[in-house]
Amino acid sequence: xxxxxYYRPKTAEQAVALLDDKWGTAELLAGGTDLLDLQKEYIAxxxxxxxxxxIERLAGVGVGHITGRDDAAGKExxxxxxxxxxxxxxxxxxxxxxxRQHFPALTTAAGDxxxxxxxxxxxxxxxxxxxxxxxxxxxxxxHCLLKGGDKCxxxxxxxxxxxxFTQGHQCVIVNPSTLAPALIALxxxxxxxxxxxxxxxxxxxxxxxxxxxxxxxxxxxxxEMVLSVTLHAKGLKNASYEVRHKQSYDWPLVQAAVAFKYxxxxxxxxxxxxxxVAPTPHIAVAAAKAIEGKEVTEATASAAGEAATExxxxxxxxxxxxxxxxxxxxxxxxxxxxxxxxWEV
Length: 345
Ligand SMILES: Cc1cc2nc3c(=O)[nH]c(=O)nc-3n(C[C@H](O)[C@H](O)[C@H](O)COP(=O)(O)OP(=O)(O)OC[C@H]3O[C@@H](n4cnc5c(N)ncnc54)[C@H](O)[C@@H]3O)c2cc1C
Hints:
This protein is about 25% helix and about 20% strand. The chain has twelve helices and twelve strands. It has about 350 residues and is α+β, with helices and mostly antiparallel strands. The protein is globular, with a radius of gyration of 20 Å. The protein binds flavin-adenine dinucleotide. Flavin-adenine dinucleotide binds near residues 179 and 250.
């Protein structure tokens, strides 16, 4: 690991002031479950490591006072608004009973990540900003597109865990965050702090398909940080379903997160988001349309699953993921609607 200077600021403003305006020279340190690996592998070689552990207000979950209004509608909105600090651990997200009641897609996704050690250290902000798992990117000696090279080695190489929605992408990584599809399905937004102050980014707009060393898997500037994520409890049915190698410790092969209103047995305002199949979380518009206005049954959920595969262009070794998407979407929809889990008998 390259030597670095360690900082432990007390406020988010001090942390941001220590960041540089281009990537590579300074890194925020949350739980360290990704950053320390990257440093040990010489993929990240920052001069400054800025720990977030001294910034108390980044940890924990609050039910928000966000509208600033005292009328009944404002109070109701406050009661249903959840603000989750960026340093909140994955273990907390997985286990908090009130969160589980409103946002099972999020708590299930958090509970499926790694093992207890990773969940105890890993944080919400770190999960959203973690680097991709492409083995060419993670190999110190491979000079791929994301490390200043001129080639994505996965396109014609070992690509069984890579993207299947590949159209228009020079680099075929998959976004590694399993919280991301759940948060996008739940219409969450992130509060971000930079040198010019705060801004709010919808999670649906937070991710980016990188194609060079000057870019990351998200849209933050190098001198910005995530402060919190905001969710609104709207009584949505929601779920996340992952297809994995047995009960492994590893990232899922594919994931589907769904959220919808369910009134009179009709699914409305359906959002279906796929994980681990594209360089960014993939919003499956055709799948949502296929089930919009319908009762969620095995037949309609199956049809939505098939529709979710629209536009897939798999690589030489990962066509198997196309079938898995259909399964994940079907099971996520049935789970959210409270149907019997026939696959668990
Ligand atoms: C064996 C194993 C299995 C795993 N399985 C999964 C899985 O199935 N699904 C999944 O989603 N993840 C998985 N992970 C990854 C894990 O979830 C991440 O490593 C973890 O969430 C990162 O959080 P952290 O706090 O440790 O981040 P760190 O390692 O501290 O930071 C990661 C990156 O995020 C940046 N960062 C941290 N906090 C902020 C912030 N507030 N604002 C801006 N940037 C920030 C850092 O600068 C760094 O670049 C797995 C990891 C391991 C080791």
